[in-house]
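Issue 218. Parser rejects a valid record. Input:
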Amino acid sequence: MNSSISTFMKVALTVTMIVGLLFMVGYTLVDGEVANYKGDIESTDNHGLKTGTSNPRN
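Output the parser choked on:
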């Protein structure tokens, strides 16, 4: 019984570490992309949609 609990804990720790590392790598990649486009935000006038109107949709 102790052997199966020990094996489960090893697997759980390994999976937790792998998920944590993948999260950190993904977060770093996304943070880098956000930093690249920080000054490149598109204006709301360029998208072609009317906003701020109270006309109901059909």
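Fixed in the parser; the record now loads. The chain has a mean pLDDT of 81.
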